Structure formats: C-alpha cells, structure tokens
Amino acid sequence: xxxxxxxxxxxxxxxxxxxxxxxxxxxxxxxxxxxxxxxxxxxxxxxxxxxxxxxxxxxxxxxxxxxxxxxxxxxxxxxxxxxxxxxxxxxxxxxxxxxxxxxxxxxxxxx
Amino acid sequence: xxxxxxxxxxxxxxxxxxxxxxxxxxxxxxxxxxxxxxxxxxxxxxxxxxxxxxxxxxxxxxxxxxxxxxxxxxxxxxxxxxxxxxxxxxxxxxxxxxxxxxxxxxxxxxxxxxxxxxxxxxxx
Lengths: 111, 124
Fold this sequence. Notes:
The complex is a heterodimer. Chain A is mainly beta.
C-alpha cells in the first residue's frame, strides 16, 4: 500500500482537461518536492514534472504541476489520444529514513 | 542522446540470485546517481535504492537492506543490481533510472532518464 493516494482512473474527451490529485502527509509531500511520471502501455515511466511544477525539456506545456500543503496535482489540457497512459506521482518520505515513494497510479482514458 | 541500456530478461528459481546490469552513455557517468525501481505485473512502482557511481556509496530502503546490492564498474559506465534469496513476489520488471547529481542532497533527486527495463521471473 502506498503512502500516497491517487484516484484509480480519470477520463475525458479529446481536447478537454483532466486533473489528477496526489494526497500525502507532512512526512512526504508536505516537506518534499513532487514529481510526476507518465507510463505508456508496455514502456518505462517517463518524467513529466519535477520540483512540483517544472517540466523537463521536450515535455509540452499542456502538462502542468502544482503543490499545496500535503497534496500535488497534475493537469493535462488539450487531451490527446496519445495521453492515454498511467500517471504516477512520487516524492520522498522520511518516516523510516529516506524512501522514494510512488503513488498507486491513475489511468487516464481518452473517450 | 543520454540513455541507459539494461541486460536481458532472466528466469530464476526461488532462492536463487539475479544480477541485472545498466550501462549509461552520452553523459558523465560519475556525475549522476543511478536508482533501481521495480514494477510487478499490474502493480505500482517500488523504489529499491540508489548508488553514487563516483564513490560507490549506496542507500537502500529498509525493505531491501541485506537482499539487494548495487555496485558499479566505472570503466564501462555500468551499474549492477544483485538481488538474492529470490521469491515469487520478486517477479517484476526492474528499471534503472538516472536520478540526481551526486553532489546534491537526496531530496533533490528525481528520475529523469530510464532504462527500458529487465523482466525477472521467479518460478519453480
């Protein structure tokens, strides 16, 4: 069981906007940066967002991240069929020493 | 372009050990930590620890201490993950990922480059 909570799935039509929440606690999100990873079927995860709201080069600005308190949020605007994937949040948890924890993942379906 | 190339799939019996390799290219190997992460079929993602390729220092979360060992061979820009006493629930895809400069504190680490993964199957 992850110490982070994400909705199992979200869905929307092409062109619309989805948001994915990632809820934690003071020992993880509350005191550390949040990253987001996209995993297309059958592939390795890919970094989408780091340090709460920064995008690596090559990631379109349709993807955005934010953090407030003990929760992080990933937003995807202008949804495309190629965005259909699993999305994981991740951060450091310090409950029992440094531990990089991933959320359980959210499946995004493009209707 | 920066990439991490992993070794091929493995099939092991319970109680055996497995060693997975990860070769880095197109960046200065000793400047960035390498992490190992695994994903069991239909499951989430689990972090197994990291190695500093410059010093060889490692860090493992409590779950993997004593069973996982990460080493490196800087002459060929390669990191290895050794996992012992394999059980059926160790069956997973194992990924290496570049994560954080070796000079940074851990809380600045995130994984920006990933290998394609190595499937390890543990079955009698």
